[in-house]
Every structure is written in C-alpha cells, then in structure tokens.
Amino acid sequence: MIRLFITRHGQTEWNLEKRFQGSKDSLLTELGEKQAGMLRDRLASQNFDLIYSSHLQRAYRTAEIIKDNREIKIIKDKALSEMKLGDWEGLKYDDVIEKYSKEYDLFWNKPHLFETTSGEGYSELKKRVIGSLKRIIRENDEKNILIVTHTIVIKQIMAYFEKRPLEKLWDLPYIHPTSLSLIEIDDEKTNVKLHGDISHLENNVKEIC
C-alpha cells in the first residue's frame, strides 16, 4: 500500500495581499511559517520515504519546515506547480474582477467553461498534475509519500481520486494553508482518509487565504 499525504503551502505575502500567484512566487509570512510548523509537529512521528514538492519557493520552504532535521529527500517537481494564470498573476482579486469579470466568474463557478488566452486551462493543468501523480504512485509502491503543492493542484488531485467532474472542482472542503489530505492506495482500491483537514491548526491561524 502507498500512502499519499498531501498539503498546501503556508500563507504567503501575496495571499495576505489577496493577489493571484500562479507561477509567480511570494515568500511565506510569519503566519505561514507557523502553519507549516504546526503541520510538522503533527507529522513528527510519521515516517516518510520521500517528499515531493512544487519547485516554487512557497511550497519548497513549507516542505523544508515539515521535514525539519529528518533525513528525507525533497524532490522538486515542476509538474506540481500551481496553475499558470497568465495576465492575472500579481494582480489583486478586485482588479481581476474589474478587468476580467466574465472569466473570473467562470474560473470559480463554471470551471468546465473557463478559457484563457494568456495562462493555463484546467485541462492542461489536469494533464500535467495527474501525469505526475500517476508516476509518483507507480514509482513508490509500499511507501509513505508527502506532497507539498498548491490549492488548484490539490483540488485536481482530490477530484481525480473522488471521481468528481470538472464542474464540481471547487466543491468543499476549502483547501486552507497546510491543510492535510491523506489517500491510501492498495492495488486498485483507493481510500480517501482525510480531505483538507486542519485539526492541527490553532483557531488563530485558520484564516482563509
């Protein structure tokens, strides 16, 4: 059996400023580092064979904090990076709503109808993310794997395991910073044990971002 522990990076400066990040990057805030530390403490007794992380710094730094001083290899995987958002990257949410109101609505409420000319579509995202996921599963039978990545990537992975269509991609739960999902795969049988769990976070660090 392979066990996949999947988490999102901690809060970033651009999360706090309500900016779209996508393939661009911003540093973890003090709160983001604290969130990662809480997940580290939760997983301290869990043995991991490997950690796979998005190459973006916000995810890799989160992986480093969770790893702590343990001898676990962190593998950077560009296929686990966040959805490329093109012209939206770096813009505040309000600015995107003003300039791209129709696309913004489709992005969140009707993802199966969303199209972009400057970024990455949901179908492109699914192809690279699920391709990477299948490779990780294929290469790591009987191992415990931690994956540190991003909101839309996690939404796509969980939709894949739960067999949800694209139009339901944004169904709850919300993927909070350092929320934890756990999937156990035994041959062809898949069991979703956790999905977006934040029981390790104190009340004052559960801000949505």
Describe this entry's structure for a reader.
There is one protein chain. By secondary structure, this protein is an alpha/beta fold. The chain has a single domain, classed as Phosphoglycerate mutase-like (Rossmann fold, 3-Layer(aba) Sandwich), CATH 3.40.50. A 6-stranded mixed sheet has the order 3-2-4-1-5-6, sandwiched between helices. A hairpin with a 2-residue loop joins strand 5 and strand 6. Helix 2 crosses helix 3 and helix 6 crosses helix 7. The longest helix has 18 residues. The chain is globular, with a radius of gyration of 16 Å. The model has no long low-confidence stretch (mean pLDDT 96). One of its GO terms (molecular function) is phosphatase activity. Pfam families: His_Phos_1. InterPro entries: His_Pase_superF_clade-1 (IPR013078), His_PPase_superfam (IPR029033), PG/BPGM_mutase_AS (IPR001345), PGM_Phosphatase (IPR050275). Keywords: Glycolysis, Isomerase.
The biggest beta sheet is recorded as: 6 strands, mixed
Fraction of residues in H or I helices: 25-40%
Distance between the termini: 33 Å
Number of helices: 7
- Backbone CA Rg: 16 Å
Binding site for substrate: 8-15, 58
Protein name: Probable phosphoglycerate mutase
Pfam family, one: His_Phos_1
GO molecular function: phosphatase activity
